[in-house]
Amino acid sequence: MLTEVVFYDTMRQGLWVALTISVPILTVALVTGVAIGLVQALTSIQEMTLTFVPKLAAIGAVFWISMSFMTEALVSFFHDRIVPLIIGG
């Protein structure tokens, strides 16, 4: 029987996994955005694509690099937490 404690603990672990796999991409997006914003402020260039293209490239590169970590974390959460709940309950 699935109790509220098990449900909330599973949700907590799922949110933690979501946070840990999103941190690399969000950090790179933040750092790239601040760096490009600083360059724009220093040079007075206000081009919209100047912020979009480098940020998209950086996010794509970090996603490609950290894809194995993200997949491993999600599969581990699924096998360690979700599958036993399905089988046992």
TrEMBL record:
Superkingdom in the source lineage: Bacteria
This protein's UniProt keywords: Cell membrane, Cell projection, Cilium, Flagellum, Membrane, Transmembrane, Transmembrane helix
Subcellular location: Cell membrane
GO annotation (BP), single: protein secretion
InterPro entries: Bac_export_3 (IPR002191)
Pfam families, per the entry: Bac_export_3 (PF01313)
Transmembrane segments: 15-38, 50-70
Family affiliation: Belongs to the FliQ/MopD/SpaQ family.
Stated name of the protein: Flagellar biosynthetic protein FliQ
Taxon lineage: Bacteria, Pseudomonadati, Pseudomonadota, Alphaproteobacteria, Rhodobacterales
